[in-house]
Design a protein that fits this description.
This protein is of the alpha/beta class. Helix content is 38%, strand content 11%. It is built from five helices and four strands. The chain has a four-stranded parallel beta sheet with strand order 1-2-3-4, with helices on both faces. Strand 3, helix 5 and strand 4 form a beta-alpha-beta unit. The longest helix is centred in the middle third of the chain and has 18 residues. The chain is globular, with a radius of gyration of 16 Å.
């Protein structure tokens, strides 16, 4: 759970001054199984981002959107959309960069996850991992960012 991770996160180390970029990719366990929504995750997300900023003061912090997944319950899709809104808002308010790659993993019609990129409802297959790796290589090697960095959908097809 995100709130558990904040307290266990490493304390500041002078060697961290050499870190140029940190990519945060939040897991989905707290999101996909929560029938009560995800608003309770807002404070832990802000806390974790601020802790990372403290630990890596000279680094550019990139917050990745969550990827879509199969709509298993009535609340799965709304949770993912709202959690990505939380991530976008937290990135903006903490002067970090939000990398939106959600739509890169949607089906052709844009209404569901692309089952051809996932080996099951939750985990990417080899092709999906290739797309995610291409996105990560792009953002790690990219020098200029806007506050909401959106990956070009067609570039990774």
């Amino acid at each position: 759970m995100i709130s558990d991770m904040v307290d266990d996160f490493a304390l500041y180390d002078p060697a961290a001054d050499d870190i140029e970029k940190v990519v945060l990719f939040f897991g989905t366990n707290d999101i996909k199984d929560s029938s009560k929504g995800v608003s309770h995750l807002k404070t832990p997300v802000f806390n974790l981002i601020n802790k990372v900023k403290y630990c890596f003061p000279g680094a550019i912090i990139l917050v990745m959107s969550n990827l879509p997944m199969k709509n298993m319950y009535w609340y799965t899709c709304p949770n993912f959309i709202y959690f990505n809104d939380i991530l976008r808002d937290a990135s903006h308010k903490t002067n970090c960069y939000y990398v939106d790659c959600f739509r890169n993993f949607l089906s052709e019609d844009g209404f569901d996850y692309n089952k051809f990129l996932f080996r099951d409802p939750w985990h990417l297959n080899k092709r999906g991992l290739g797309i995610l790796c291409s996105i990560l290589k792009t953002v790690i090697n990219y020098d200029t960012f806007s506050t909401a960095f959106r990956m070009d959908y067609d570039y990774f097809k």
